[in-house]
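Question thread 4412

I'm putting together a teaching handout and wanted feedback from people who do this every day. The idea is simple: show students a protein as raw sequence, then show them the structure tokens that encode its fold, then repeat with a second protein so they can compare. Below is the first pair exactly as I plan to print it.
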Amino acid sequence: MMLRKLALVALLIAVFSLTLVVSVSSVSAQAAACWEQIFEEVTIQFGGQTITYDKHVDTVFDNDCLRIEDGRVNNHDLAAGGAIYCGEGGTVSVWDIGILGEGDLILAVSPRDIAAVPNPPEVNTLLGEAGGFRLYRLTSGELQVNGPGIYSTDPEYVFTWSSCPA
């Protein structure tokens, strides 16, 4: 009977160890894809033995993992049709991004043109438009760019942010 319990405990330890190795391997692989595995330590008593292992409780996406580091405001939008930048003194510029990743300056709105609209305005107000892109000052005081989407399921790209530093 005692030998049977020890064999069962040994089997459980082997299974938990294998699960932990597989979990650690999958965490390493998924970390490269910006997913983080959340584990909590669990301790159980079995056959007079204490077994501690890590139990998977959640998986979360790291939003800061995938972003474009060229200074654009919409740096988390990896499939945006346009790159939005805050330039010197608060100029907003929008670059149309081509299929090969090259960009063409499409729209630039000066700080003077932006300041000419009350913040916040009574209605959403168009500040400038070109090449299918439009820059608005919203009634919330935020800025918003609308432009062509790059997927047929997303006919319009929309990005909203607080403001550009002056």
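The second pair follows. I'd like the answer to focus on this one:
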Amino acid sequence: TGSFRNLELLHATPFARSQDLNPSNAIVTKLTRIQDYVLKKFDPELHQHLERLEIAPQIYG
């Protein structure tokens, strides 16, 4: 698994969050969209706080 992890790092998108790279299902995609668009628009302070703490939307959604 070590070489597989190294391969993943080689093909990783710079500055991308892990939940954005490979959403596991529709609910993760929807929660991420809510965080990135709805929350950012209506409560930018909370959005920034969650981003700074790197709290994934699946945790609170």
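Top answer:
Good format. For the second protein you could add a caption like this: The chain has one domain: 2-60. The mean pLDDT is 77.
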